[in-house]
What does this fold into?
Amino acid sequence: EITTRLVGSEMCIRDRETEEAMGPGEGLLNTVTDSYHKMMDELIGRGLDSLFEKLYRARRVFLYGSGSAQTRAASEMKRIFLPVKEMFHIHGHDMRGALSRVMTERDMAVIISLTGESEATVSLARELRLRQVPTLSITRLGNNTLASVCDENLYIHSITLPARYGVEYEISTPYFILIEYLYLCLLYTSDAADEL
It folds into this structure.
């Protein structure tokens, strides 16, 4: 365990030294932080009125995450939005059928997926669309089937760690940045509306 920590620390130090030698804009750390900034620039430039209107009007908001990182993001969204909107976090593929049966056009579904191509997740979105349930997809940036089926779409900039790190891992922090940004915007919008 100590050896693993030392090796990990040495790799981080080497990566920092490599980045410094390579200059700005190169290296994993710069790539990741640049992607955060790019995502925020796109979010700030985007109008969220239509999305917030759907959230305000929804009697109930159901959150569904397709994978482990997406499930954690859905859980965090439920927690952070609690002061302004009660949300229900539904997880597990076995709950998809129940979710599609209980939701109506007076509700809203937020579906969080990495690729937006999972057959089960796309199938859920299609069922909800047939029932005229307003939907929001949160996926990795790019054209995907889930986004094409949902009413509203938000995108994260996700980066996969290079193979040299020896683990298959996709950065999940952008989900949490996006969710926190939505919450802060919703608070600001609510405060501005209250002042009118």
The helical segments are 2-22, 28-44, 49-57, 68-81, 96-102, 119-130, 145-149, 173-195. The first strand starts at residue 61 and ends at 65. Confidence is low (pLDDT under 50) at residues 1-15, 21-25. Strands lie at 61-65, 87-90, 108-112, 135-140, 152-156.
